[in-house]
Amino acid sequence: MQDMYRKIYDLQNSRLNFAIATIVSSKGSVPRNNAKMIVLEDKTIFGTIGGGYLEFYTIEESVKSIQNKISMMLYYRLNSDGTSHIASNINSDKKNIEMLCGGEVDIFVEYVSSKQNIYLIGGGHVNLALSGLINFLGLNYYVVEDREDFRLRDKYINANFIVDSSFDNAIKKIKFNKNDIVIIATSKSDEEAFLSILKNTKRIENSLAFFGMIGSKNKVSSLRNKAINTGLISKDSLDKILSSPIGLDLGGESPECIALSIMSLVLIKINNASGKDISLGAKYNSENKNKNDNIIVVRGAGDIATGTIKALKDSGFNIIALEIEAPTVIRSTVSLASALYEKEYEVEHIKSILVDTVVEAIKISKEKNIVPILIDREMSSIKEINPFVLIDATISKINRGITKDLAGITIALGPGFDASKDCHYVIETMRGHTFATIIDNGYAIPNTAVPANIGGESILRVIKSPKTGIIKNKKSIGDIISKDDVICTIKSNDDKEYPVKAQINGVLRGIIRDGFDVTENLKIADIDPRGQVDNCFTISDKSRTLGYAVLSCILKHENKMNEK
């Protein structure tokens, strides 16, 4: 055991993040009753908790713990039917484990971060004020300078110093770690320091916990452009990592006030916090109390939901989408739900990524232009996510579990929902004079089961399966179709293949994925008689308009709450 603790000490000093998996309780027949195991992010281990599948899954969850910077409990149980599973307090999904020993094991996975260094580039007045806050917080920090005899050196309490004839030379001495914080505030060498840091970090968006620089907007813009235009870093990478000008707007102008604004932002970033006002008198707390500010859950990620997600993501909201295990996704080219089959998918610069846990979803939702998708048919993750807005965009025409108390604002698209009872608002989805109307009392127009008229066609443009079976596609989305063309076949249970023909001319706007199990009379394809191929690969006017209606609905509700 002493060797284990010595290894923990060495790992912290080597500046590697890791996790410690400890068996905290056991019952019945288990591999080990009392053991520890250290797990690194690359799945290297020190020690063992007994081997086998239990250890394999513990390593997998420990890596997630490191990546998400969280600790968790793991629970191993033998079911009454002889099968075993592992679950955690972070993710309720159960994974089957092929272990015959039986018994029960509870394992605590503790995330341990390595030493976090703060590098103050420049020994001037602002960084001096910052050093006082850093020292007060008990953090380790370095002052980097190009002056051997800079005047304020003796005022930096408990500081480490890296000094050389130039900032470039001094920065070359540093081996940056992805836990490190770097703040540039030199008197006249910001450009040299900025470019040197970019040159001395590999994949900088994954190399630093925080990178900030003091400076005017014009200076920052000039330095950004220089770094991008010279190929030193891409715009996307720089946008992800650089905070500049730096700090929160606290209103003060003294070095001490600027330092406080900078350190406040640093703590928000590295702790993944909201920075919101948590006082009891804060605006909008009455109905949104304790909700996860700025996170919106959209139930569904099909073509209609994608228009809503696009409008909200473009407006700065953090989005998490919930989907079922195998959605039909007829208009797959404009549906973020395609990520369930492709792992990730992009529609109009918004990328969806399939994730496994709520913790991962919350983290990724804050990324620019990225939307995580969780498989969660029953919305069991809502309680843990605790969003301030919940939107049902499945257009399922029936309420499948939406209630007003699930979020600060609940919105449903289409018929089947009673506004003010089931949810706060309903958005009208029927084309016509009232299309996209916000309803705060009552229902949307009932489903007529008649497809909307597009290009003079309604019923004939929608294709349904003649049999239950497996679809085999003969045409692809974007193909120009003539009447009576075979667009697919259905291989039924009697091993016969039934051809499915187009009933009109047009372009194939959507078709269910090849090999999908379909049921008789299920909508499987959609032909657009207007024949515009580009429309197959962009969000529709209907979807886009409904997205703007949802955005308007949220802003309307917020304004109403702020007036109270």
Proportion of residues in helical segments: 25-40%
Residue runs with pLDDT of under 50 for 5 or more positions: 92-96, 279-290
Quickly count the domains.
Answer: 4
**Radius of gyration (Å):** 28 Å
CATH class of the largest domain: Alpha Beta
The CATH topology of the largest domain corresponds to: Rossmann fold
Label the overall shape. globular
Q: Report the structural category.
A: alpha/beta
H/I helix tally: 14
CATH-derived architecture of the largest domain = 3-Layer(aba) Sandwich
Q: What is the strand tally?
A: 30
The overall average pLDDT, rounded, is 85
Distance between the termini: 60 Å
Major beta sheet, strand line-up:
16-17-18-15-14-19-20-21-22
The biggest beta sheet is recorded as: 9 strands, mixed
- The proportion of residues in beta strands is 25-35%
Can you put this structure into words, describing what you see?
With 564 residues, the protein is of the alpha/beta class. It has four domains: 2-112, no CATH class; 117-270, NAD(P)-binding Rossmann-like Domain (Rossmann fold), CATH 3.40.50; 292-450 and 542-563, Rossmann fold; 459-529, OB fold (Dihydrolipoamide Acetyltransferase, E2P). The chain contains 14 helices and 30 strands. The strands form five sheets. The protein has a nine-stranded mixed beta sheet with strand order 16-17-18-15-14-19-20-21-22, with helices on both faces. A seven-stranded antiparallel beta sheet has the order 3-2-1-7-4-5-6, with helices on both faces. Helix 10 links the parallel strand 14 (292-299) and strand 15 (318-323). The radius of gyration is 28 Å and the shape is globular.
